[in-house]
Specification:
heterotrimer, A alpha/beta, B alpha+beta, C alpha+beta, A: alpha/beta, Amidase signature (AS) enzymes, B: alpha+beta, three-stranded antiparallel beta sheet
Chain lengths: 480, 482, 98
């Protein structure tokens, strides 16, 4: 088998057993990128400083990644490598520091492969909002890869990276993972440091891995979790060795099926595929039961207040003074701000800044932001209550499979693509998306497993079991 | 100033807290470094950077709150204040909106009208902004330059209630505040370097009226004197407006130090919509009773308390106690000295006299001088023993002040020892009597005070080293015998 | 409902220059989104405390220790315009002063 097709864990195993040379892996991946990225356009930039001949498999502080390449979404700060957020605003921005996750990956022997395309500032669900170019779903020429971590998902799906990191604010890891047929985990808020992650919505953003197999997710979680003194919101916790939970066993696990999610209108093929996967878990010994939850539409409404409000503030720093774009069309200070921001931001970013500014502006705070924060309490309490009775909850990751490029023009229609993923961010809990089948167009379907705070290991165990039961070998889309 | 209109003043004071590192990052807070050398991804607001709160900044704020009789919040949080300006790297200031760390305090001030309590609404913690300067001269320049060294220096914002009724009270309030902060050693309160800054709100209303008049915000006052003058000016200006039925505009005015007037700063009003919301990058602060008590117990003795103790313990006049407790350093100096030389009034005379005279003359701070309480005590002991005269002591004092040498060594080196040698003095006295027959005649005729003149002559002759008491006694005896 | 006047006010607060067409478009789109958000009124939240922090943490503090600042070259390397180790911006007019 071609090396680029191997999963991260397979590559690690082969390296350990000296069955393969690190150099050959890098060359295979590099060759694959040069072959297919012209079509997929997953990368914004590639790391040109990898000296393949000098790569080592050992002697890192932790040897998890053994010199293997990792792709990073282009909103994670990398010293000396441009970090653009796929925005015209940061097209030339070259950070002077590494994000904590970047440091951790390097420390564990990971090599920065390149920076992946995304919706501008992580705002979107299709990667069409990249200021540079849209990324194409490897499974369908005219299909979006999902977003906002569309580049990371497509890179993994197309064999251009064994593993990638993405960020998830309302579904931005899980939704593209679902659309591209890969596994993607959004960890508990606070489990992974946000230091160096360019902020979209600070109270919702979380970095997580995208990979071909659940095994790889467990390995990456070992690498990236942990309290960081540079991130006040990161949590000190006894993070387990997640690879110990790669067990084919769901016996006695209590799994909830949220009534209100399944009562919504969504694609029948997605529904059938997810229900059949649930049945397989039940057959494997899980106790499956329906449960009432707060409707996901409320979470989505609260999300669009909280996320945009925080974004309007987080994106105010792009003013043309210290870094990034400055408009040439500047006569005075106010012009410099407003012209720079007009030229530097795309339409979706502007729309969200406008909405966020509006909901925080004088006289509206209580009606919108405060209300949304209260709804957040309700949703969080609701999940807490459910997880007293259930170990996990499952749902589709997305209401449909990958849609066509340019298909969704209305913002609200686009936002609805996040309906099943958003509640998880609102409550700060972890969730995974794993492939559970394909629709009749050959597009992957994603299965979401949600768990209580800091119980990623349970999610990983259930996902691993499902992966084994469904026996979905890594599939590769036909690419020329 | 006026019996028709009551003046309502509220003050907003920003104080830089004297921590080593900034409030949200580990950059140095040192003043006067090369531009932008005290900066990092966090205080530059680079994409992805995050704040982590400095514990000492919180402690200093709590100390300030407790010293100003505030309630300490059991639950507090930070908020973002959003506005665009080049000196604000994130385009929001991390501040505190509805849950400040301290609130409901007060300061008592004394003016000629008597004692007056001024409420403190709140004290909150926030970050300072950077500095902007014009490139070249103001007229010819086309650009401004930004230095972010000051960005992220911790600030305490202390907001008073509109309880102040006269510019004098405002000045006294500020003096008391500054004194307290200096006692706590939480800020150096240097107005020239901008570590203490004050804005004022002022309005007038007819006596008896409940509603406030239209208020004007005053900025850019760089000394307590300027604040008092600006408030006085504004009082008169507003009164003129009211009396000629003109509307006072709610606006911000800046104090023009050269012209001694306030000037309108139009245009600032356009966007005061700061869109405060809880800072998601920082977690809440909870302060339990135990940690509050711990800080309270460790507060130093504060100015008023110390003043009263000085009056009672050392039995010195209130005026002395007031002057001596003006700064913590001065009070410490005094007490260090009294510990070694137990005559508080004598020590007070020297501290308030020679010591403060030299300090003021040289525009020095206490820490710049070489003298300490122990050295002064040693000198006072030499006077007591008669080794030096009080007059010579002034020379010795100045020498200690500048060099820090021991008084004994100075007296040795410079040969300043008092002449108490009976024979030597008698000789000089005899000469003086012989040279001044007219004066002797006057004294014999009852003009006792003229003895002083003779003593003066001896002091002159001995360059001040004669023991004046002995000389005085000798003259009296000798003249009697004539 | 956000009318065009409000869109302009908000755009000014956010320092975003918008064309007349965009003002119209945003007025419509933001109004639609706000209509959707109105769903929240269906939930009773009278006595509910707001959640700003999903995971309970408090008092995260660091010691007051100075560490090295960033090298001045790195501080300035991304600056659109600089002069004398400072960031240069258009002259600040008096009426723009804070």
């Amino acid at each position: 088998m071609e090396l680029y097709k191997c999963s991260l864990s397979e590559l690690i195993k082969m390296l350990k057993e000296n069955r393969v040379k690190l150099k050959d892996i890098h060359e295979s991946i590099s060759f694959r990128i040069s072959n297919v990225d012209k079509r997929i356009k997953a990368f914004v930039s590639l790391n040109n400083n990898i000296k393949i001949d000098q790569l080592k498999t050992k002697d890192y502080i932790d040897d998890y990644l053994k010199g293997l390449p990792v792709a990073f979404k282009d909103n994670m700060s990398t010293e000396g490598i441009k970090t653009t957020c796929s925005s015209k605003m940061l097209k030339k921005y070259n950070p002077p520091y590494d994000a904590t996750v970047v440091k951790k990956v390097k420390k564990s022997g990971g090599i920065i492969l390149g920076k992946t395309n995304m919706d501008e500032y992580a705002m979107g669900s299709s990667t069409e909002n990249s200021a540079f170019f849209p990324t194409v779903n490897p499974w369908g020429k005219n299909r979006v890869p999902g977003g906002s971590s569309g580049g990371s998902a497509a890179a993994v799906a197309a064999g251009m990276a064994p593993v990638a990191l993405g960020s998830d604010t309302g579904g931005s890891i899980r939704q593209p993972a679902s659309f591209c047929g890969v596994v993607g985990l959004k960890p508990t808020y606070g489990a992974v440091s946000r230091y160096g992650l360019v902020a979209f919505a600070s109270s919702l953003d979380q970095i997580g891995p995208l990979a071909k197999k659940v095994d790889d997710i467990a390995i990456m979680m070992n690498v990236i979790t942990g309290k960081d003194k540079n991130d006040s919101t990161s949590i000190n916790n006894n993070y387990p060795d997640y690879t110990k939970y790669l067990k084919n066993d769901v016996k006695g696990m209590k799994i909830g099926i949220p009534n209100q999610y399944f009562e919504m209108e969504f694609d029948d093929q997605v529904r059938n595929s997810v229900i059949s996967a649930v049945k397989k878990l039940e057959e494997a010994g899980a106790e499956v039961k329906k449960v009432d939850v707060t409707g996901a539409e409320y979470a989505l409404a609260a999300y669009y207040i909280i996320a945009t409000a925080e974004a309007s503030s987080n994106l105010a720093r792009y003013d043309g003074v210290r870094y990034g774009l400055r408009s040439d069309n500047v006569n005075n200070l106010r012009d410099m701000f407003s012209e720079t921001r007009k030229e530097g931001f795309g339409e979706e970013v502007k729309r969200r800044i406008m909405l966020g500014t509006y909901v925080l502006s004088a006289g509206y705070y209580d009606d919108f932001y405060l209300k949304a924060q209260k709804v957040r309490t309700l949703i969080k309490n609701d999940f807490n209550k459910i997880f007293k009775e259930f170990d996990l909850m499952v749902s589709p990751t997305t209401p449909s499979t990958a849609f066509k490029l340019g298909e969704k023009r209305d913002p609200l229609e686009m936002y609805a693509a996040d309906i099943f993923t958003v509640p998880v961010n609102i409550a700060g809990i972890p969730a995974i998306s794993i492939p559970c089948g394909f629709d009749n167009k050959g597009l992957p379907i994603g299965f979401q497993i949600m768990g209580p705070h800091f119980k990623e290991e349970k999610i990983i165990q259930a996902a691993y079991t499902l992966e084994k039961i469904l026996n979905l070998d890594i599939k590769y889309p036909e690419l020329k | 100033m006026d019996n028709k209109y009551e003046t309502i003043i509220g003050l907003e004071v920003h104080v830089q807290l004297d921590t080593d590192s900034k409030i949200f990052c580990s950059c140095s807070t040192e003043f006067g470094r090369e531009p932008n050398t005290n900066t990092c991804p966090i205080c530059l607001g680079l994409p992805g950077s995050l704040p982590v709160l400095n514990k000492k900044a919180v402690d200093y704020l709590l100390m300030t709150g407790l010293a100003l009789n505030c309630e300490i919040a059991s639950y507090s949080k930070f908020d973002r204040k959003n506005y665009f300006y080049p000196d604000l790297p994130k385009a929001y200031q991390i501040s505190q909106y509805d849950l400040p760390l301290a609130k409901n305090g007060h300061i008592n001030v004394k003016t000629k009208e008597g004692e007056h309590r001024i409420g403190i609404t709140r004290i909150h913690l926030e970050e300072d902004a950077g500095k902007l300067i014009h490139e070249g001269s103001i007229d010819s320049s086309s650009g401004s330059l930004v230095d972010y060294n000051r960005t992220g220096v911790p600030l305490a914002e202390i907001v008073s209630e509109p309880d102040i009724r006269t510019p004098e009270q405002a000045r006294e309030y500020l003096k008391h505040l500054k004194k307290t902060l200096e006692y706590l050693k939480v800020s150096d309160c240097n107005m020239e370097e901008g570590s203490l800054r004050c804005d004022a709100n002022i309005s007038l209303r007819p006596y008896g009226q409940k509603e406030f008049g239209t208020k004007v915000e005053l900025k850019n006052m760089n000394s307590f004197k300027a604040i008092e003058k600006a408030l006085e000016y504004e009082q008169k200006r507003q009164r003129k407006f009211i009396e000629s039925n003109k509307d006072i505009i709610q606006e911000t005015r800046t104090w023009d130090e050269n012209k001694n007037i306030t000037i309108s700063m139009r245009g600032k009003e356009e966007a005061n919509d700061y869109r405060y919301f809880p800072e998601p990058d920082l977690v809440p602060i909870e302060i339990d009773q135990e940690s509050e008590s711990k800080i309270k117990d460790n507060l130093p003795e504060l100015p008023n308390k110390r003043k009263n103790r000085f009056i009672n313990k050392y039995n010195i006049p209130e005026y002395d106690a007031e002057v001596l407790t003006d700064t913590r350093e001065l009070a410490d100096f005094f007490e260090d000295c009294v510990l070694e030389y137990n005559d508080p009034k004598e020590v007070s005379n020297w501290v308030m006299g020679e010591f403060l005279r030299l300090i003021n003359e040289e525009k020095m701070s206490i820490s710049d001088t070489k003298i300490n309480g122990k050295l002064l005590a040693d000198m006072l002991k030499l006077i007591e023993k008669g080794t030096i005269s009080t007059k010579i002591a002034k020379t010795v004092f100045a020498e200690i002040f500048y060099t820090g040498k021991s008084p004994k060594d100075i007296v040795e080196e410079k040969g300043l020892k008092q002449i108490s040698d009976q024979d030597k003095l008698e000789e000089i006295v005899k000469d003086i009597i012989a040279d001044n027959p007219d004066v002797i005649e006057d004294i014999k005729n009852g003009k006792d005070r003229a003895i002083g003149f003779l003593v003066g002559q001896v002091m002159k002759e001995t360059k001040g080293k004669a023991n004046p008491q002995m000389v005085n006694k000798m003259f009296k005896e000798k003249i009697k015998q004539i | 409902m956000i009318d065009q006047k409000e869109v302009k006010y908000i755009a000014n607060l956010a320092s975003l220059k918008l064309s007349e067409d965009q003002v119209k478009k945003f007025s419509k789109q933001l109004s639609d989104i706000l209509d959707y958000i109105e769903k929240l009124d269906e939930l009773k939240t009278d006595n509910i405390r707001p959640t700003s922090y999903t995971v309970p943490v408090k008092n995260v503090l660091r010691d007051d220790v100075v560490k090295d600042s960033l090298d001045i070259k790195k501080v300035l390397k991304n600056a659109p315009e600089r002069s004398n180790n400072q960031f240069r911006v258009p002259k600040i007019m008096d009426e723009e002063k804070k």
